[in-house]
Amino acid sequence: MNAGESYKVLVLGDSNVGKTCLMHRFCDETYYDTYISTIGVDYKQKIIQLDDKPVKLQIWDTAGQERFRTLTTAYYRGAMGILLVYDVTNLDSFDHLTYWLKNIQENASPDVIKVLAGNKCDNDSLRAVDKADGEKIAECYDMPFFEVSCKMDVNVEDAFQALAKMIKERSKYAGAFGLRDETPREKCSPLFEKSFAESTRKCSSC
């Protein structure tokens, strides 16, 4: 089956949040207990149906390790959608969303579609990030939000489908959108707003 349209999608987040697992679950419908962290960039593609028409998703799983983050910026070019992932059992990965949102703001198209996903929602015994916290950040940055589980196959398909549908809608009006203010709105929590401001503040010597 040939796809008429093709969308470039990035999967971003820290290296230990299960991005590779998400990509394999969605593209291959498989799950493994262990994955080797992505070195540089991994790539897969999948053809899905949108409004009864085939669309190819070109999915790039970018390395989350700090030493590869400069490499990640090169892959923003042409990206139409971003799945931003954190681990609900790892508070650091949630706190690092400030870095990734800043990185997206600086490198991606101002009209790139973003979806936030909290992975490993099946592991309630180790949960460190409440669902309400994820919802609050998603609302703040006007992103759809899903808690997902690769292991139990919860909401993985839904998250990618939502991203693709929003890209399709945006592509109908290509060029009609100007720059958007990506700084936190007043409804963001003061703590997150302070963290974002600190992450985007230039040094005194700049």
From TrEMBL:
Keywords: GTP-binding, Lipoprotein, Nucleotide-binding, Prenylation. Protein transport. Probably involved in vesicular traffic from ER to Golgi. It comes from the Eukaryota. GO terms for molecular function: GTP binding; GTPase activity. SUPFAM superfamilies: P-loop containing nucleoside triphosphate hydrolases. Belongs to the small GTPase superfamily. Rab family. This is Ras-related protein Rab-1. It comes from Sipha flava (yellow sugarcane aphid). The keyword Zinc-finger does not apply. Pfam families: Ras.
